[in-house]
């Protein structure tokens, strides 16, 4: 390969030096390649070293990719410049370079300065699952405290926010405000600022909120005046029509035109005086505007139909969108502020108390979140002078001297806290290199602030090589075909504006196709398919899924896609279907594709408590807690663990239809039903255990006793299911960490967490295969590219935040003004916050659409749907004074399809779009602009396929044959009946004698009565853990325990629970001496092996005896002695004799011997138990 040919803009980025630079890099413009080249050049020219640069991005994958590319680039430079010995040194230093995620950089910074922050250096990073659990526990704890203490205004807060049934609204609002506060450098200062709008005594229109409302009103009246101008022009032109009847002419001249003129003049008057009228004056003007009835005209022309449509639009919009804003006078606004202020103050205090409680819980676990670490870094780098002004700390100054250049990738996604971090690290704010694309900022829900990027982009000078700070625009696209880039430009040049989207999408921000990237072809690169389905019972996404499946089937193997050495036929893995959300629609599409033998993988977030394996365990816990819970009992009995069939359940229920299911199971057992009897016996044992152990330990016991881990291991996505079960244990541990015990309380805790879906949300398992159709959300696709991109669900309505509490970044909190629980007054502060939030959400929707469309390399396919005779797509193209859609019209759109259709309405290749938009023969009123990139636009009718009915010839069997067939059926004996109830997968501990539950009950105290807060079982676990870790050649047990605690391998409570005297006895025993003497020792040795049913279940039939059973287990310790294996199992059972131990565990040790012999290939000469109670070895 030859030397890279850089574009002029790329060359400017690489060569720039002398100050801070902001690079606005459009999709596919090669920003990473350019940044790597710039860093390499700077090192090669001796301007910096890898030791004195900081390169940060947002994901580990991106950071690793960046470091790998820099290494590759430096290695190439070293080969080409062998005389430059410094490059080899730089390569050797690269592994230690500060090239990482922002989080990783902060972690290293905080750990190395822990002494200045009063934290432990070995703090753990809290993973997402545990973080959500701890948050949930902390906020519910604070809520309980507030209900108990009932601080001032808390009742008013609950009346204002909480629902009638629960406090989920309050919890969600508090967590939202907490998350927002954490994105600011100083959260307490941010919380203080939330009351400012309600303490501001200026007239409303002079406040920040008032200015946001005025900007909205300006957009609205710009919209109305344009509509009125166009309507008046249409009416005046109609008067000139020679075919117009005299009656219609009089109606237009004397009635219709005066109505339009009057309303138009009112709009212009309000618009022209928006900024010099007070609230009450504006309110008066709005209220005075009345809409007269529009004259009826039969046989209207398309022009007059459009005229009426426009008038209906501005009248309905004015009534729906504006009139409700002016329900208060200025005095009433002040009164409502006074009502809301104490509620806001109570809410922010609630958030502070939650933050404190949450921080205490994390500190108790010596754990921190990424947000905590970021704030620690800011506190470390900042200080206050005598005037309270923020200044750099000594640490910041030292780091600023060390770091010559700071490179920030994906800068459009930073928040205020991260922005301050970079400024504190920068020497004088003149050595920052920031690269990103504000059009791809789609993480508002994670508090990303694209306004920070936009502010710099608007303030910085255009790059001239001399003036700094400056901006360079990278617009050349190396990813997509020309038709894709030009059609994307066409769409966004019409819908993205400064007012909605943050920037004017014009030639400065266009995607410029890179000549020669692809070979020319005749067919369009962009396709728009509108699916009309005839059956109103069919859901949109079902019809759409059928079309997508057809499209993929018809193009796989036929469409050609680019490869390095030419072209090849498209594979399934070349197709990606993008949606805003895949929760329901993605699953349906994935199932349909699989049904049609099209391999597909769907990435989606899941909710822990909705996962089948977790639902079973929770149902079992509920049955143990309350056997009369018929719903849970039915779920448990029908599960694979207990294996009852629907027919068996019907028979059981028929024991007494008016009785509970549990009572009927008891009756069935009393009547000799062995299956019911076994079920009741097992659940009764588990119930007794649940009285004496904590929830976390109970879950472990359930998993072991039911063999459920083995059951889920035999299912699809076994690893993910096991992770879910472990995560449920984490919930149990979090519940107990607050000093709570008991199954009932744990179930109530889970019920509360279950209502807060976000608390139990988790990431999907990675199940992609290389050659499968990818189905993913637009957010998941960011940073990726696909040969064929299918943008689906474009006719789904934009999501809008709902609820009594309105939060927006610019307005803060909007609430109802409550007089009581049942009287809630809407107000202009809340409505303004709603407007600001709606504009932010719509801007993010536009950016999501941009991200989705710019993933496509070879083909972009856009799919919209509607039922025949349905609402259709909203026609917005009438409501504009130019090719660019008016900002208020963009806000009026309800689906992405509204915007896409409007954008394509002027495209010469889209007559079908104009037909769909402009009904009643008005297509000719839409102006067509030629010179556009080719587009394939089609409408399809999708009919529901009816199942074909076929007549089958009736076959009447011979009576004698029928009798013989019945006799065979009656006499048939199932050869595997002897294995009924036997599991296909077992754990070795199942083969211990099944009366350990009773002995466990006899020995165990409830956890709250146990020494050291640990149950006997937990103390046994601690001893077992020590034996797993211990060095048997070191007799200093106390020193080993101290070391394990320091290393985090044991907790202090576990270390205290280890019985040191019993350990000493073991260390001095003959079996320990033999272990020390062995050169080959296996500790905690896992094994999985196959055995036949005949080896495990005596008395089975000859045929059944050959069936395979999978055995899993873990041997405590095994060692080789004289070439043969000795297996030792530790037991902590109390009040036992040698004979009792042999009786209980001989079956288990026999299985261990057979399985380990097969696994290790070493003959077993001896199995034994070491009893800590007896202090002896018991041979089996």
Distance between the termini: 71 Å
The tally of beta strands, per DSSP, is 34
- Tally of distinct domains: 5
Binned strand content = 5-15%
Query: Low-confidence parts lasting 5 or more residues at pLDDT below 50?
Result: 946-957, 969-985, 993-1012
| Overall mean confidence score, pLDDT | 87
Query: Can you count the helices?
Result: 46
For the report, how would you describe the main beta sheet?
Answer: 7 strands, parallel
**What's the overall geometry?**
globular
Radius of gyration: 36 Å
Q: Helix proportion of residues, in percent?
A: 40-55%
Neighbour order of strands in the largest sheet: 3-2-8-9-1-11-10
Structural class: alpha/beta
Task: Please give a structural write-up.
With 1180 residues, the protein is α/β, with parallel strands linked by helices. The chain has five domains: 8-124 and 369-474, P-loop containing nucleotide triphosphate hydrolases (Rossmann fold), CATH 3.40.50.300; 127-364, no CATH class; 526-603 and 771-797 and 856-942, Rossmann fold, CATH 3.40.50.300; 606-762, PCRA, domain 4; 982-1179, Lambda Exonuclease, Chain A. The chain has 46 helices and 34 strands. The strands form ten sheets. It has a seven-stranded parallel β-sheet with strand order 3-2-8-9-1-11-10, with helices on both faces. The protein has a seven-stranded parallel β-sheet with strand order 18-21-17-22-27-14-28, with helices on both faces. Strands 29, 30, 31, 32, 33 and 34 form a six-stranded mixed β-sheet that branches. A hairpin with a 5-residue loop joins strand 6 (382-384) and strand 7 (390-392). The longest helix has 35 residues, at 330-364. The radius of gyration is 36 Å and the shape is globular. The two termini are 71 Å apart. The model is unreliable at 946-957, 969-985 and 993-1012 (pLDDT under 50).
